[in-house]
Amino acid sequence: MGQKRLNDDIHSLKDRLNPDLVQQLSSKKKQLKSEEKARQEQEKQRKIKERQRKEANKSFEELLNDSELDWHQFK
């Protein structure tokens, strides 16, 4: 019986709200989701640029250590 009452309360709350308020809340939700997505995309781009900057500033020793080539093969 408690579960049925809980379900009735959930449905009746939405029915009790002003339709304009429901519309405002849903539009705000969409806006926040789009802002979050844009923020994540900016963060992704920042990380890519940071990785490229680090790669460009590597010393010869770091590049040599990261290389998959083995000098023993070319003796």
Automatic annotation (TrEMBL):
Superkingdom field: Bacteria
Biased composition (Basic and acidic residues): 1-18, 32-45
Region: Disordered, residue numbers: 1-57
Protein name stated in the entry: DUF3886 domain-containing protein
